[in-house]
Amino acid sequence: MLERLKKPEEYDWVEPMGQAYGDGLPLSMFPEIQCGFPSPASDYEETLSLEDVVIDSRHKEATYLVKAKGHSMVGAGIFDGDTLVVDRAQTPRKNGGSIVVAVVQGKATCKRLMFKPDGTPYLASENPHFENRVVAEGDEFELWGVVRYCLHALL
After folding, report:
1. What amino acid positions are annotated as catalytic residues?
2. Can you give the pLDDT at residue 55?
């Protein structure tokens, strides 16, 4: 029941945001930053690519970006308009709990993949105002990958 059938680009209604890897934009990076008092190591700096942080180097070709829409995952820190980094080669946790991009009955969604005690998968919302979706026998259900990172603007 948990099969990957099509890639997102194989659907004509999916609008890709662009590739998740490329030449890489080198960014300056401090080893860490204090959220309280300033750090005495603030003069130390190295260069790091955002690509190196959010993309598993073994899965570059299997990684894509998708824009989140809606409010069902706010409890997981995913907000309307956030950019999700999704890895098609990553396997969801066997005991559940991975946040995934899936297609159920032809509609794409981002939810937490969970399992009932009998092994039946369901997609859990992270907002009490939204219902969970049990994946019933015979439902069209495809996993498009595991969400590795959520990027959202603070301004």
Report:
1. 72, 111
2. 86
